């Protein structure tokens, strides 16, 4: 039975995502994202389940930073969870003076709070579940939580299925110590981070390395590098699998062009949308062009 | 002793270039460029010496077309000849009513002719040397020729070292049947022709495949494809040798991106200017990125 470290405590969206990756796994909550990732690096867990981006709030900085440092870990799966919140209170609560949650969660229910709890002070908790625990312990009157929290804590549902943005989703990654990537499925995503020289055009060049090889970029994020003014670490997600020639060629080109590049995994896309290479960029095109080149180099005919 | 077929007759600039490639070679004149190239294809000559571009007149269409059809031949050397003309007449000629030469040669002495032979009719000959033969046979009064022609024909020099454009040069290629390219010298050029789909951006994409790999384009020519409206064959010359990883990668990419691509050779540059790859594109950068990728693909650490 695999062990999954996740950003806990129990009752968070991350726990829901971890269960979606493997309903049979042993789930081990960790108080922060870096600690959950560190558990994988230390071999205490087989995988770590962490949020990586939210459609409303954007990138989860703690995850981005955890991926960039220390021993490499790679994503082997992703899961996309629709984000609908539940508001929990102690049974019998009639007045809500304080409402707590993770800041990302609070940000996604501002409309609902303005309408239903306009007088409540909003307090930041370490996680949606920590807010539920705080309600249980009497520190807050209400918590904005994941639906799964209602199953863990003896609290009353003041409201459920709320979200200002009805289409909000959060994307989670299942991280593993560096091993062989999962087999290509035909609907794969590859993630990489790259640090490039602080020169005009360098980011464009990175992107051109992908575009020229018929590789569809699905996401780009940048994080400033500490202590290096004007320099950024770029996170790229794109269609395709490291086993494909076009992706291998692009990764090797990024390696040559970057000060630092780190492979963050090739894994099946949650939406299962085809990542097939366009004409001219398929494996058979690469094999055919490589055979042509090899023939020329050995003095053969075209 | 190698045999070099060249675009003759004797006494042309092409003969001068052929002698520059190999002073000991047996030189065999052919009446047209396609016939000189055909002699190599048929194995009747080891090499063909043909003009490929002139700094004033541009590409030599007959050579460009000959390279594109039939069995492939590749350039193994290039030579750049300064172009200065001699004007030859029959000894004792006092009036010049007609002056003949190859049209490219006539074009390069229009200023001199306007000043010194303003009344002479200009007639096109198949080559500068054929014009000299025509003078010998009494068909023309004067011929604009290569300096070497004076050594072959019993004619008088009316003028020498003339050229409207003092910096005019013609570039010649030494063509061979397809064999192993000459060893890289560090100052190499690679030539290729490519036919791409008639779509916006396709030429830009070809050029980007080179630029992204740190490959300096030295020349681009286009020739319309017969019977295919709006479609062009592109001739590209760029720095580097097919044995280099960056050049091999670029050639393979052109192969995938083109309807047709033909390797026209990797050979030492006449000017011996370094073709060294810039940082990030050297063989060691490719070996390092390939090793990194291979390690990742086999499940190793970064």
Biggest interface between protein chains, with counts per chain?
A: A-B, 39 and 39 residues
N-to-C SSE string of chain A, H for helix and E for strand: EHEHEEHEEEHHEHEHEEEHEEHEH
Total strands of chain A: the figure is 15
This entry's quaternary arrangement is: homodimer
Q: From the 3D structure, determine the CATH topology of the largest domain in chain A.
A: Alpha-Beta Plaits
- CATH architecture label of the largest domain in chain A: 2-Layer Sandwich
Helix content of chain A: 25-40%
- Low-confidence stretches of chain A are none
Total of DSSP H or I helical runs spanning 4+ residues of chain A: 10
Mean pLDDT of chain A: 90
Give me the CATH superfamily of the largest domain in chain A. ACT domain
Most strands sheet of chain A: 6 strands, mixed
Beta strand % of chain A: 25-35%
Q: What number of structural domains do the residues of chain A give? A: 3
What would you call the shape of chain A?
A: elongated
Distance between the terminal alpha carbons of chain A, to the nearest Å? 55 Å
